[in-house]
């Protein structure tokens, strides 16, 4: 799928990456939210381009709704 962006999160590194995808090629990853929200378990894009993050920084797990990164 051309012109897509992958948005993997990380439990151990406690950050989110955005990686531009063009066909079968991946561009340079950009790091966001390093250690700001704890261990990121899952990521989804909001319709506005922001993120829903599922984190277990505190007990119980919670969801953050974040605006698009600047």
Query: What would the principal axes of the Cα set say about the shape?
Result: globular
**Biggest sheet record:** 5 strands, antiparallel
% residues in beta strands: over 45%
Structural category is mainly beta
Overall pLDDT = 86
SS summary, helix count:
0
Count every beta strand, where a strand is a DSSP E run of 2 or more residues: 8
Q: What is the N-to-C succession of helices and strands?
A: EEEEEEEE
Rg over CA atoms, rounded to whole Å, is: 12 Å
Describe the oligomeric state of these chains in a short phrase.
single chain
Query: Uncertain spans, ≥5 residues at pLDDT below 50?
Result: none
What share of residues is helical?
under 10%
Determine the N-to-C terminus distance.
25 Å
Structural features, described:
With 70 residues, the chain is an all-beta fold. It has no helices and eight strands. The model has no long low-confidence stretch (mean pLDDT 86).
Defining traits:
70 residues; five-stranded antiparallel β-sheet; globular; 8 strands; three-stranded antiparallel β-sheet; mainly beta
Protein topology:
Layout: E1 4-6, E2 9-10, E3 15-22, E4 25-26, E5 30-32, E6 40-45, E7 51-55, E8 62-66
Antiparallel strand pairs: 1-3, 2-3, 3-4, 3-5, 6-7, 7-8
Outline:
With 70 residues, this protein is an all-beta fold. The chain is 0% helix and 49% strand. It is built from no helices and eight strands.
């Amino acid at each position: 799928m051309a012109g897509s962006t992958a948005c993997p999160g990380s439990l151990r590194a406690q950050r989110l990456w955005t990686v531009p995808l063009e066909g079968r090629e991946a561009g340079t990853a950009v790091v966001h939210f390093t250690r700001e929200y704890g261990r990121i378990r899952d990521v989804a894009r909001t319709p506005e381009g922001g993120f829903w993050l599922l984190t277990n920084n505190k007990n119980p797990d919670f969801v953050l709704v974040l605006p698009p990164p600047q």
